[in-house]
Amino acid sequence: MYPDLSYLFHDLFGTAPDNWLSIFKTFGFFLLLAFIVAARLLKWELQRRESIGQLQPRRMTVAPGAGVTTADYLFNGVFGFVLGYKVPYAIANLDTWKEDPTGVLLSTEGWWWSGLLGGLAFLGYYYYLSTKAPSDVQPREVDVYPSDRVGPITMMAALGGILGAKFFAILEYLPRFFEDPLGVLLSGDGLAIYGGLIGGALAVFWYLRRNHIPAMPVVDAVAPSLIVAYGVGRIGCQLSGDGDWGIVAAPQPAWWFLPDWVWSYDFPHNVLERGVKMAGCELDYCYRLAEAVYPTSVYETVMAFGIGGVLWALRKRLTPVPGLLFAIYLFFNGVERFFIEFIRVNDRYDVLGLSLSQAQIIAICFMLAGLLGGWYFLRRARV
């Protein structure tokens, strides 16, 4: 359907496909949108928990007159260099960038002269800020609430999630990693969603502990936003045709009343360019699947939004039992993924005589963790 935004704009506004908008891949766009949605929902819920006293602010001293630090110069000088090194090179090689944005941005290719100019420009800007910063403002104490830290929390979740997703994807396809370690590490594909959840959770727990923020109320606040964001991300999977589809669909039954594409879909213009070439197509993405498959991303989107609605409805009632909402999230997340895997395309492993995918094995762990966690948090609340 829409491997990148140029195809979406073509359908909406009639603009030409495969133009400069091709550098914005549909899946990446919805992944970014998922993080934005998650951050917004999380902030609302953290503010609610702060208003009832479950989360307290941390008293911190700020010094407005401290000016720009050496760390500011170092970080922004490096950041400016990277931008200058990569962006002009990517623009000059727009056709390659459109075809493989991640490969271009994560490669070592770039222009040193523009990188140096970018670094100097950022250093000059921060030097200008240092000359304008007031030096006579006294340090003062302010209350910093957890909701004020949604940005860093989201960034930690994103960084940990990407690293975790990549790690679990490497574990699942070790032979491919051993054949080309650097290529696999720097590629934008191969991201396992459960690895992302685990990696993101570890990163957020570390951040909360480091900043003396109680973890259980925060993870309860995170639960609805996590599953809703997952649903948003799955919309990107469906629209781009990124391979997260199901097995070949059975014939549509006579009782089916929803649109045909909800039962089976052949993913025209899929981003993987998998299947058979579409007759008369001269675009960059011209393939559709030879046989229609179950659009499992649609089913997961519906289930994710449904679970998110249940968690959002329960959040106020379960506030007095920290951790319980997150335990319910773990259980429903595991149930959803365990059953959808039966009609998804994935490698299978023999586990005690059962043929299970990696995601199903982790889903079982999630369900058990949810049940045990729910029992523990309820028991602790009654003591």
TrEMBL record:
GO molecular function: phosphatidylglycerol-prolipoprotein diacylglyceryl transferase activity
Keywords: Cell membrane, Membrane, Transferase, Transmembrane, Transmembrane helix
InterPro entries linked: Lgt
Highest rank taxon of the organism: Bacteria
GO cellular component: plasma membrane
GO biological process, alphabetically ordered: lipoprotein biosynthetic process
Residues that span the membrane, as ranges: 20-42, 62-85, 111-129, 150-171, 191-208, 321-340, 360-378
Keyword check for Magnesium: no
Entry similarity comment: Belongs to the Lgt family.
Record's protein name: Prolipoprotein diacylglyceryl transferase
Species for this entry: Neolewinella lacunae
Taxon lineage: Bacteria, Pseudomonadati, Bacteroidota, Saprospiria, Saprospirales
